[in-house]
Design a protein that fits this description.
Layout (H helix, E strand, L loop, with lengths): L1 H22 L14 H15 L11 H10 L1 H4 L5 E9 L12 E13 L4 H7 L5 E6 L2 E10 L4 H17 L1 H4 L5
Antiparallel strand pairs: 1-2, 2-4, 3-4
Helix pairs in contact: 2-3, 2-6
Length: 182
């Protein structure tokens, strides 16, 4: 009888702890199916959450948070990367080729791309640098590539804000995203 009374308290306590643990999560955060990749997803999520604060101010960012979460959690999309990455595009005309990348966009277009490459893909990373505003830096043993491209018209102010967010988060997460994943 005494055990029954205590077990009710114990069970109630466990239920309360579960409610607090489950209730506090942010549904905007993407989660990795691999614990090894979670530090990289934490990096991507911090970028995404900061950029999401700009979403209401810039029409070219409409759907950024939801689309990048979907991309990060899509296994097929993530299999294209050895470590991980996210991609967002708005207003990119995929049917029209153009000599100048900016001419391939509808009004208020944007592309935001962020990838972490392992050391054995340094050549791929290097080939992307400088191409269509692609930038990057070596972080520890890995390489971070990012592209922030706006067109029709170009919004240099927005590009600079997003690049600053990415760069700030590279510094913040350097110890974890610079480590080898395998």
């Amino acid at each position: 009888m005494r055990f029954m009374r205590y077990s009710r308290f114990l069970l109630s306590g466990v239920l309360v702890m579960l409610l607090f643990a489950c209730g506090g999560s942010d549904d905007r955060l993407a989660s990795s199916s691999s614990p090894k990749r979670q530090p990289f997803f934490d990096f991507f999520n911090d970028i995404r959450l900061e950029v999401s604060e700009l979403e209401n101010q810039y029409s070219r960012l409409d759907g950024f948070t939801a689309e990048t979460k979907k991309f990060l959690e899509n296994r097929t999309a993530q299999q294209k990367y050895k470590i991980g990455g996210f991609y967002f595009e708005k207003g990119l005309n995929r049917e029209q080729g153009a000599h100048d990348y900016a001419d391939r966009f509808y009004p208020d277009g944007a592309v935001i791309h962020c990838i972490v490459y392992p050391p054995d893909q340094q050549g791929i990373w290097q080939n992307l640098l400088g191409f269509n505003k692609g930038k990057g830096i070596q972080v520890g043993q890995n390489y971070v590539y990012y592209q922030v491209f706006t067109a029709q018209p170009t919004d240099t102010d927005l590009e600079n804000k997003i690049e600053a967010i990415i760069e700030r988060n590279m510094e913040k997460h350097a110890a974890k995203i610079g480590a080898l994943i395998y």
